[in-house]
Design brief:
CATH architecture of the largest domain: Alpha-Beta Complex
Radius of gyration: 21 Å
Helix content: 40-55%
CATH superfamily of the largest domain: 2-enoyl-CoA Hydratase, Chain A, domain 1
Number of helices: 14
Strand content: 15-25%
Distance between the termini: 71 Å
Amino acid sequence: MTAHLVDHDIVPHSKAPGVIYEKRPAKRANGEIVPGLYNAWIWLDNPSQYNSYTTDMVKGVIRAFRTASNARDVVAVVFTGVGDKAFCTGGNTKEYAEYYAGNPQEYRQYMRLFNDMVSSILGCDKPVIARVNGMRIGGGQEIGMACDFTIAQDLARFGQAGPKHGSAAIGGATDFLPLMVGAERAMESGTLCEPWSAHKAYRLGVALDIVPALKVDGKFVPNPTVETQRYLDEFGRIVHGEPLTGEALKAGRALMARGEVDLSQLDIKVEAMCTKLMNTFPECLTKSFEELRKPKLNAWNMNKENSRAWLALNMMAEARTGFRAFNEGPKEDREIDFVALRQRLAKGEGWTERMIEELIPKAKNA
């Protein structure tokens, strides 16, 4: 036994606002606790803002992954969010709108932190499981796809938000999505920003497994607002996980209103995955996922710096407008009039403060 173990952490782990780090005892398949071994659970703790990450939270996530990576007694890392509404919906739009909008030099520094957060996940010496407890949107989808595995509750939604809110999904999505779902589906998600149900994400390979979370009359039922039975439509296409419409959607929402969200099945599935990972040779496991991460890493490292620069400069124009619209606009109308914008640009109008103010939606009684 080594008499003295060297501390390889750069700084001692400390509590960060909006991030919870905890070690839970590892368990055997029969539920028996394994003495001296743990799984590190890293929680995004900002449920009132759908676990969107602030600058301080990004710093906390980086430190948490570094701590878990170096912990000799940690088997696997579980990355998740507090509550049952959202895993993460990306960067905190209030902070974006009120501080970073119009300040590209500041956003460039912020994006260095964001890049380091993604890299801390991709470079963790332990396997990383995304426990998707709710929406995984925008930057939340990007940090989720940086993880090695995704296990989700089936009410969750997955997707991007960039071109709808003044950005582009170049914080990882444009690197990871083509590898995971192919060029066409990646194009669909990254440009149209229409969210996928958990069932569709599972079918396309974005999630390893999904479990029911809606409990009605004491029994778990699949998400009643999406098509959960696979069949061929009139054009011979596979339909599975697509949103229901009309009366079927209305009935599904009524059933959801009767039920309650219970994430116990999600936790059971995540714990089972941690147990499977524990029952391997640790160094062989590490080498295996290091090699399997290479396609993601290669794409990410090739693009992250020029993406950072573009995103910073974009804070002077479209991002400045889009994030402010989301933050300042009425709840039912947080997107600008895209047609009006295109018409003004077609006439050669520049990005003036007046144009930005006129594009941001206002409350009807304002």
